[in-house]
Write a structure and sequence with these properties.
2 copies of one chain form a homodimer.
Chain A: H1 17-36, E1 40-41, E2 47-49, H2 50-53, E3 64-68, E4 80-82, H3 87-96, E5 105-114, E6 126-135, H4 143-159, E7 164-170, H5 171-180, H6 186-193, H7 196-199, H8 201-210, H9 215-225, E8 228-229, H10 231-239, H11 246-261, E9 270-273, E10 283-292, E11 302-307, E12 321-327, H12 328-337, E13 351-353, H13 361-373, E14 378-380, H14 387-397, E15 401-404, E16 412-415, E17 421-423, H15 426-434
Parallel strand pairs in A: 1-5, 7-9, 13-14, 13-15
Antiparallel strand pairs in A: 2-4, 3-4, 5-6, 6-12, 7-10, 8-9, 10-11, 11-12, 15-16, 16-17
Helix pairs in contact in A: 1-4, 4-11, 5-11, 8-9, 10-11
Chain lengths: 435, 435
C-alpha cells in the first residue's frame, strides 16, 4: 500500500497530503455528477438529539454522545450525539423544513459521520459519506429508481478506477417468491441469503434450516439467491412472474421500469442479482449495491434503495424516497490498499518560479500573479538556492513547469517532464497543462 | 434578511438549499485561491485528545467532550473532544508527520469546528473555518507574511462582496514602543487597545489608567492605537523607528518586507492599523485582520499572523509559521443579514427537459445524458404536466433553459430569461450558459 495514512488516532483516519488530494478529487467528481442531475447540496449539523438517534435499532449502540466539558458538575446525560449516517439527519431536515422545500426534493449531502464501532482496516470511527436522495411529497415516480442507478454508473465511470458492477434486486420480489413457498420469517431469511456471496450456497442452506425452514424451502431460497441475470435476461425473468400475487405484480412493474431505463448501459455494468436483500430497516422496494470488479470480497462500496416513508419518525406526511450512499473513506482505503488508485502529487503546484537572487522576488511575484489570474497554481521559490536544488524541490512539490525570470532576455519556461525549454508565455503553459 | 436558515437546533446552523449553494460557492472559491498559491489540502479528525485541547487557556471551557453512549457503566471521563479551531490540530498533525511532510509546509484546511459557547446571532456552536498556514522547519522567510495578505486580498476580491480592508500591525512594534514608555504589563495593555475601534479612545484611556498606567502612558498608547496609515505612509513611519531597540529593529524589518511586497495593491485595500493586537496566545510578529467596509461593527471576518513556534506542545523542533483563518459561517451570516449576498437558485439545475407524454422519457433521458456529458446540469420533468406548469416548475428549480423534445421537427430549446426559442443544440446552450 502506498504511504497514504498520516499518523492517526485509532479509527480516525487522516491522510497524508498526496492522499487527501485524491480524496478531494473524488469528492469533487461525486458532487459534480450529483449536480449534473440537479441534486442540490444540503449540510446538516454534525449532531442530532440523542432521542432521535437512539431509536434506530442496532446502530444506537455505536453513537458518540457529546457534552460540554466545562460543566463538570452538570448532568452528563448527553442530549446530543454525533450522527452515524446522513439518512436520519435528512429525514429530520426534510420534515422540519417541509414548507420551504420543493418536491421532488433532490438533495445530496457529503459529510463525515461517526460510529463508535471497533476500528478495523478500512472500517473507521469517522468517515465520509456521500449520499443522494429523491424525496417525493406523497408519491414518487418509479423512474427515479433508474436515475439513481444511472448516477452510480456515471460516478464510477468518471472515477476511472476499473470495472464495476451495479447489482439490482427488489425486496417485494423476494418476499413475494418466499411467500409462495410459505416462508414466514422474511427478515431472518433475507439476512441469511444476503450473505451468499461471502459464505456460499451450502452455508446459506445450513443457516436457513437452522432458522426453521424446511430443506425444500432452504434450497429454494438459496438457489434463488444464486441467480444473476443481465438486463435483457432480467426483463425475461420478471415477465414470467405470477402477477396474481400483488407483491410480485408490484415488483414486476418496479423492476421493468428500472431495467427499461437502463437498457442503454454497456453489458455487465448492471446485473439483476437475487441475493441482494440489504437495508432491512427502511428499504421497501428496489435495492442496489455497487462492487468493484476484482474487489468483491470487500463487499459493496455504494448501496441504496427505495423506501416508502423516509421521515415517518418526524412527520405525519408521507415522504417516499429513493437514495444511495457511497462510503468514501472506505472506498479510498480499499483502492489505495489494492493499488487501484495512486496518490496525487503532494501539492497542487503546477508551476514553480525559480529565484537566483532575492531581488528578483517582486518580478517573480508579478509573473506568479499573472499565472494565477489565468487559473494556474504557482509557487515562487521559498528562498534562493542552486538551480539543481530548486528543480529537485519543484519536482517534489509536483510542479510540471519551472519558470525562470530573466534580466537580459525573454523569461524562460521549462517542461520538467520533457525537458523542453522555451520563451515563457502564460497561454502556452495553459495549453500544456490542460492537455 | 433573506430566508436562508433552515429550522435548526440552537447554535447549529443549517442553511436552506439556496443558501447552502452560496456557502459551497464561497468555500470553492476559497479553496481555489489557496491552491493557486500551492497550498495543499489536509483534513484532520474532528476530535483531539482532551489533554491536548484543554491546555489552551480560555477556550478550553468551551470544549465538547465525546463518549460512547453504549458504555452506560463506563468511565464517562471523555478522552476525546471536538476540536475548537484548526490551529491546534494542524500543529499536532505537523509534529506527528514531520518526516513525511515537505517544508515549508503550505497547507490549507476547511472544516467545521465546535465550541460550547452561548449561541448568539452569527455566533454559532458549530461553524466552518477555512485556514492556511505556511510552516517552516527551523526558519521561515518573511516574504510569506506578505503572501498571506495577498491571499486574503485575492479571496475577498473574488468573493465579490464589496470593498474590504486588510489591517496590518506588528506585535513587536507595539511592545517596542510601549517599552520605551516603560509600560510593564504588555498583554493587559494590548487587550485594551485592541478594543479601540469598538469602545473609542476615551474609554481606552480610562481602562488603561484603571489597569495601572499613568495618564501619560495611557494617552500615548491610545493615541498610538488611533494611527492608521496607507502603505506608503507606513513605510515612512517605520523608517523613523529607533532601531537601537532590537524589537523595533525587528518590527521595522518585518513590516518593510510586507509593505514592499504589497505596494502594488490598490490604495486603501491594505492599511497599517496600530490598534490591531490580536492573538495574544501565540502570535509573535505581524498580525492581520480583514473587515468588510460598512460592516466594521461586526469585527474582523478573517485574521491571522506570524508565530514563532506552532507545534511547541507537540514537538521539540522549532516550527515557525504564518497563517490566517476565515470564519466562513459567520461571514456568510453577516453577508446575508446585511443584504450583501443573495442566495442562489435552490438547485444547480441549468436546463429542464419538458415532457408531454411519459413515452418520451427515454428520448428526454438521452438528451439529458448528452447535455451532462457536456457539463450542463439537467433535470428531466418528474412527471407529465401542462406546459405552463412545467415552465413554472423549471423556473422554481432555477433553470435557465427548457428543452422540448419533438417528434416531427427539430427539438426545441427556450431561454427562460429572454423567451427566445430556437432549434436545440448542446453547443449553443453551452455558449449561452457560460456567457
Amino acid at each position: 500500500m502506498a504511504d497514504v495514512l498520516a499518523k492517526m488516532m485509532s479509527g480516525f483516519p487522516e491522510w497524508l497530503p498526496a492522499a487527501k488530494r485524491q480524496e478531494k478529487r473524488i469528492l469533487d467528481i461525486v458532487a459534480k455528477v450529483y449536480e449534473s442531475y440537479g441534486f442540490t447540496p444540503i449540510e446538516t449539523a454534525a449532531v442530532e438529539k440523542v432521542k432521535s438517534l437512539a431509536t434506530t435499532g442496532d446502530v444506537s449502540k455505536e453513537i458518540f454522545g457529546i457534552h460540554r466539558l466545562a460543566g463538570e458538575g452538570e448532568n452528563k446525560k448527553a442530549e446530543f450525539g454525533l450522527h452515524f449516517d446522513l439518512t436520519l439527519p435528512t429525514a429530520r431536515y426534510t420534515a422540519d423544513n417541509f414548507a420551504k422545500l420543493q418536491f421532488p426534493f433532490k438533495r445530496y449531502q457529503i459529510q463525515k459521520v461517526w460510529r463508535g464501532e471497533r476500528p478495523q482496516k478500512g472500517r473507521y470511527r469517522e468517515f465520509y459519506q456521500a449520499d443522494i436522495d429523491v424525496i417525493g411529497d406523497g408519491t414518487l415516480p418509479l423512474h427515479y429508481e433508474a436515475e439513481v442507478v444511472q448516477v452510480i454508473y456515471d460516478i464510477f465511470t468518471q472515477l476511472n478506477i476499473g470495472e464495476f458492477t451495479v447489482k439490482i434486486n427488489n425486496r417485494k420480489l423476494l418476499e413475494g417468491l418466499y411467500r409462495q413457498q410459505d416462508v414466514d420469517d422474511m427478515n431472518a431469511t433475507l439476512i441469511i441469503v444476503d450473505k451468499i456471496d461471502k459464505i456460499g450456497k451450502d452455508e446459506v442452506v445450513r443457516l436457513l434450516i437452522k432458522s426453521g425452514l424446511s430443506i425444500e424451502q432452504s434450497t429454494f431460497c438459496a438457489e434463488l439467491a444464486e441467480k444473476k441475470f443481465s438486463v435483457s435476461q432480467a426483463l425475461e425473468f420478471i415477465q414470467e412472474l405470477d402477477t396474481s400475487d400483488e407483491l410480485l405484480a408490484a415488483a414486476q412493474n418496479e423492476l421493468k421500469t428500472i431495467f427499461d431505463n437502463l437498457s442503454h448501459l454497456p453489458d455487465g455494468a448492471v446485473i439483476f442479482d437475487l441475493s441482494i436483500a440489504r437495508g432491512l430497516d427502511y428499504y421497501t422496494g428496489s435495492v442496489y449495491e455497487c462492487v468493484i470488479n476484482g474487489l468483491e470480497s470487500y463487499g459493496s462500496v455504494c448501496s441504496g434503495g427505495r423506501y416508502d416513508n423516509l421521515a415517518e419518525k418526524f412527520s405525519k406526511k408521507k415522504l417516499p424516497g429513493v437514495g444511495l450512499s457511497i462510503g468514501i473513506s472506505r472506498l479510498l482505503y480499499l483502492l489505495f490498499e489494492n493499488g487501484r488508485l495512486d496518490t496525487l502529487a503532494p501539492t497542487p503546484v503546477q508551476t514553480y518560479v525559480v529565484l537566483f537572487d532575492e531581488s528578483q522576488r517582486p518580478k517573480a511575484n508579478k509573473m506568479a500573479t499573472e499565472m494565477r489570474a489565468n487559473g494556474i497554481n504557482v509557487e515562487v521559490a521559498p528562498s534562493v538556492k542552486k538551480f539543481g536544488k530548486q528543480i529537485q524541490f519543484a519536482e517534489k512539490r509536483g510542479a510540471k513547469f519551472i519558470v525562470i525570470p530573466e534580466q537580459d532576455r525573454e523569461d524562460q519556461m521549462k517542461n520538467l517532464e520533457t525537458g523542453d525549454q522555451e520563451d515563457f508565455s502564460v497561454e502556452k503553459m495553459r495549453g500544456f497543462l490542460s492537455s
